[in-house]
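Supplementary Methods. Inverse-folding protocol.

Structures were first reduced to a C-alpha cell string of length 107. This string, shown here, constituted the complete conditioning input.
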C-alpha cells in the first residue's frame, strides 16, 4: 500500500479548488477525503451566503421595522442579529480550520 505525500492533488467537487490530501493518506481513502472536503466546502459556502445576507439586513438600517417600534425591542432585535452573526462566523471558522482548502470568498 503506497502512501502519497506531496505529489498528489485532489479537487473539491463544489468549488473546483485543488488541495493536497493529509500526509499518510492512501489511494483507497482519496474518495472519502474528497467527499468530506466537498461537504465541508458546501457548508462553508452556505454559511458565507447567510453571513452576507445578514450583513445586508444589518446595513439596511432595519428599514422594514415598524417606526413605532419600542427602543427596547429595537435593541433586542439588533442584539439578536449580532449574536446570529457571531454564531455563523464561529461555525464558519471551525469548518475552515478542519479543511484542506478554502472556498472562494470564505476568508
Amino acid at each position: 500500500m503506497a502512501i502519497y505525500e506531496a505529489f498528489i492533488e485532489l479537487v473539491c467537487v463544489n468549488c473546483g479548488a485543488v488541495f493536497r490530501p493529509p500526509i499518510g493518506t492512501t489511494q483507497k481513502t482519496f474518495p472519502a477525503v474528497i467527499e468530506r472536503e466537498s461537504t465541508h466546502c458546501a457548508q462553508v459556502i452556505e454559511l458565507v451566503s447567510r453571513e452576507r445576507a445578514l450583513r445586508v439586513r444589518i446595513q439596511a438600517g432595519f428599514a422594514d421595522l415598524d417606526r413605532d417600534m419600542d427602543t427596547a425591542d429595537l435593541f433586542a432585535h439588533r442584539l439578536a442579529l449580532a449574536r446570529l452573526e457571531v454564531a455563523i462566523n464561529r461555525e464558519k471558522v471551525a469548518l475552515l480550520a478542519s479543511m484542506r482548502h478554502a472556498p472562494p470568498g470564505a476568508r
